[in-house]
Amino acid sequence: MNPVEELKLLCEAKHLVCKDQKVNGSHFVDVTEQLLEVKVVFNIEDTNAEAVGLKIRGVGEQETVIRYNIANQKLTLDCSKSGKPVNSV
User: Does pTM top 0.85 for this prediction?
Assistant: First the structure.
């Protein structure tokens, strides 16, 4: 999916984190922006990991998890801990 060109006008800062680096386990990046465009490339050719992914943490206990299971070739998006509770305002 490619965003429309006008979205580039919203970019105020650019963070290059872990560019061309191997990351084993977890890596935490602390950002304060309210809007983020995240680009992630995983090289799964030379790995023994079962899955790769990222977790975007929000306020409090909120988080969104994007995970790719290598063996099953299945991409999952877990938003169960994201957003407002069902009956909130």
Answer: no
